[in-house]
Amino acid sequence: MKARLVRCSAWLVAVLLAATTVAWSQDLPPPKRVLMLYGHDPNAPGAVAFTNELRAAVLAGSPTRVVFYNELLDLDRFPENARREELVDYIVEKYRGFSFDAILTDGTRALKFAIERLSARFPGVPVVYGLAFEPEVDFSALPENVTGRHHRLPFAATLELARALQPDAQRVVLVGGSSPTDSLLLPTAVRDMTPLLGGMQLVVWQDWTYASLLQSLRTLPPRTITILSGFSRDRSGQHFNSGDLIASVTRWASAPVYGIARNWVGDGVVGGVTMDFGDDGLHTGRLLLQVLDRASAGLPLPPSEVARPAQVVDWRALQRWGLSESRLPPGTEVLFRTPTVWERFRTLILAIAAVVALQSALIASLLLERRRRSRALRLVEESKDQLAHIGRVATVGELTAAIAHELRQPLAAIRAHAEAGAMLLDRTPSDSSEAREVFRDIISDDLRAVEVLDHMRALLRAGDSVAAPVDLNEVCERAEELLVQDAARRGVQLRLSLEPKLPPVIGDAVQLQQVVLNLALNAMDAAQASPRAREVVLGTSAGSGEVEIFVRDTGPGLSPEVRARIFEPFFSTKAQGLGMGLAIVRTIVEKHRGRVLAENGDAGGAVFRARLPIADPAGVP
Amino acid sequence: MFADDGVERGIAAFVSFRVMDQTGPGSTSPIGGDTDGFEGLRVLYADDHPEMQRAVGRLLKVSGASSVANAHDGREATERALAETFDLVLMDLRMPQMDGFEAARALRAGGCRVPLVAVTADADPDVRGDALAAGFDAVLTKPFGLDELIQALQLARKRQSAQTSVAGRDSSPP
To answer: Cβ separation of B56 and A488 shorter than 8 Å?
Structure first.
């Protein structure tokens, strides 16, 4: 019994194992084999991009493994290999007994080789082509089991792009290499571009060495469009991959350079309508996968495709050549745009600008303030002068009686003289010598009258303050001349007490006389009210570094309240007083850098003092 | 001819009348009233304005005054008027030290009966009244000419010779 159970379970396990093994192995179908024929140098940047994208696409898109078997035909450098039977034999021999699911070609030459020479030896194997841009094959008339992607040479479109960016261009330079492939492209380029030239001249450069090419590019004249075609060999036979040299070629160019390969953009060309080989690899890879799937299912192959060009420009090249982005045709991709300083530091710049603007505004407002202030100060000074003038006019008004009085004297004297003179001339014999005296006296009296008028005019004059040496004794004496009549009228004794040899001050004599007149008139008002002696003393004295004008009266004196406010504007002890006289006195004295004082005298009455600095011996106070 | 003669004589009379007015004693004044000009008079003129002194002094002299004395203030005027003899005292009202009013009062108080004429540049009408009240007999307003002087002189004389208080209204020249 037990033995049977063991045997049964062992069988069961074995069956299960077998089943899973079968199932397992059924999860791993056999890989597809692709023979890849490189016509181009596999290290050329375009080819590298193509291959990488192709492999990535294949890896990503296929659950089945795809294994590539690479053959490097090197047909660009050795185009004659395409005709050699030995090469075909070599490949066939190499892979004897091996079956491929597809043949993949890189480049038109390789395609041609595959179709014309190899397909016969690999019957039934579909051919997929990519990276095919050389115009060597009629892509519209390919055999049935051939499909793939090819590029149309984008010279015309690139020229259009260049023309849009450089509308003033007068010349197109087409640079091509000397290899067979290079030479293949140039006729197409010329044919495609000629209708678009307009007035532009087309020059083809093909006969150059690498060194001479660099030199020629360095000396390109302005208003030139330079378009690079493929260049893999120069005149001297030197081979290179054009993609490796773009940077060097464009670095020293003196005019913008455009190109036809996408992988050139970023190395220095401005851009162009370009063949994107990387993208080509991606799509070719997908096409290959489709081919592999369909072929095994017996389905017809997917149709061939025309690659779409990539219209791209390098933003940095635009900046280098001063080309305007706004001129670009629509649909152009702008690459390598570096953010400008503005874009990168926008916030910081704005912040700084704001601070600077604020500071500028502050400075401007301070300057404005200063101007306003100096203007205000000037106005204040003018107002002071005007005020002083008004005060003088008022003072003169007060003294009108005295002035009229003064004028009458010389007029009366002239009258008396004239009558006497007439009488003298009437005498027989006429006394002409004394008559002559009379006329002389009349003239001098007339001058006296004019003097009085001039004195008044000087007082009434408005105008800016004068700064000159002034003898205060003289000022007091002239003031006294005007005051004596008024004093007499009021019954007040006016006395002068002048210090001999008084040092001069710097100032305006008219304004200082106004000060004296005002103080004296005030003093006379006070003295007039006195029941006892009515006296006003007007005097000068010298102190250390200053001189003083004082006016003493025998009036009632100043109470403390009055004394505190006596020089205030609009403060008056008189019923009808305006209260400006002493305020003006203070303004004038302070303008002369002096000060005013009011105090009570020893013998009753008030004393007003104006102290002024002595003029510097050098004349500048 | 008769007519011409008459006119001529008329003119001559007029002229001589004027001349006599200036030079001769007791010449008729155009205003009427009795006498006189300044012929032979001794005059004291008090004024603190030197130009007035000079001018009026000359005028009086040319008019025939025998002497014209000067004083510069009220005090001097009072002293001299009391000490010396004058036929006429002319005094400016506004003078330092002692003004004309005070001087006039002092003179009258001192018994001086000389005709006193006030001279003033002040056109205030109150001044006239004050001056007369202080003792002046007439008031002259500067500027004045010889005619006004003569009028004032006559008026002053008339007043003084009346010896009683001032009577009637004085028709002093305006």
So the answer is: no
Report, as ranges of residue numbers, the positions in chain A whose pLDDT lies below 70.
1, 18-28, 462-463, 575-578, 617-621
Closest Cβ–Cβ partner in A413, A485, A489 for B51: A413
Q: Which residue of A has its CA nearest to B74?
A: A488
Task: Name the DSSP class of A239.
Answer: B
User: Following DSSP, what letter does each residue of chain B receive, concatenated?
Assistant: -HHHHHHHHHHHHHHHHHHHHHHSTTPPPTT-SS---STT-EEEEE-S-HHHHHHHHHHHHHTT-SEEEEESSHHHHHHHHHHS--SEEEEES--SSS-HHHHHHHHHHTT--S-EEEEES---HHHHHHHHHHT-SEEEESS--HHHHHHHHHHHHHHHHH-SS--S------
Chain A residue numbers with beta carbons less than 8 Å from the beta carbon of B146 are 419, 423
Q: Under a CB-based contact definition with an 8 Å cutoff, are residues B140 and B128 in contact?
A: no
A551 with A496: CB under 8 angstroms?
no
Q: Which two tokens stand for residue A56?
A: 């990535």
Task: Please give, rounded to a whole number of angstroms, the shortest distance from the CA of A528 to a CA of chain B.
Answer: 16
Q: Looking at the complex, does the CB of residue A484 fall below 8 Å from at least one CB of chain B? A: yes
Could you read off the pLDDT of B44-102 as tens digits, one per residue? 999 988 889 999 999 998 888 899 999 988 899 999 999 999 999 999 988 877 888 98
The predicted model gives B11-16 an average pLDDT of: 46
Q: Do A424 and B62 touch (CB under 8 A)?
A: yes
Q: Which residues of A touch B49 (CB under 8 A)?
A: 409, 413
SS3 A522: helix
| Neighbour tally for A383: CB within 10 Å | 11
Residues of B in contact with A450 (CB under 8 A): none
3-state class (DSSP) for residue A184: helix
In this structure, are residues B67 and B88 in contact, taking their beta carbons and an 8 Å threshold?
no
Q: Is the dihedral of CA A585, A590, A594, A596 positive or negative?
A: positive
Write down the pLDDT at residue B142. Answer: 85
User: CA A539 to CA A601: how far, in whole Å?
Assistant: 14
The answer to whether the beta carbons of residues A10 and A79 sit under 8 Å apart is no
Task: Write down the pLDDT at residue B27.
Answer: 33
What is the pTM for the complete model shown? 0.46
> For residue A270, what are its two tokens?
């401005």
Residue type, A63: P
Using left for φ > 0, alpha for ψ between -120 and 50, and beta otherwise, residue A525 falls in: alpha
Q: Is A101 on the interface with B (CB under 8 A)?
A: no
A376 three-state secondary structure: helix
Pairing of strands A505-507, A468-470: antiparallel
Secondary structure class of A446 (helix, strand, coil): helix
| Rounded Cα distance, A415 and B75, in Å | 27
Cβ-defined contact of A409 to B59 (cutoff 8 Å): no
Tell which phi-psi region holds residue A99, choosing left (phi > 0), alpha (psi between -120 and 50) or beta. Answer: beta
Give the pLDDT score at B68. Answer: 92
pLDDT in tens, A197-227: 988 999 999 999 999 999 999 999 999 999 9
Longest CA–CA separation in chain B, Å: 66
Asked if B118 and B73 touch (Cβ cutoff 8 Å), the reply is: no
Between the CA of residue A315 and those of A222, A262, A340, A361, A432, what are the distances in Å? 20, 14, 11, 38, 116
Residue B7 binned pLDDT confidence (cut-offs 50, 70, 90):
low
**Which of B96, B121, B123 is facing A412, going by the closest CB pair?**
B121
pLDDT for B21 beyond 50: no
Beta strands A127-132 and A146-150: pairing type?
A: parallel
* Residues within 8 A of A (CB atoms), B 6-65 only: 18-19, 22-23, 49, 51-52, 54-56, 58-59, 61-63
Amino acid letter for position A419: E
More confident residue, A169 or B12: A169
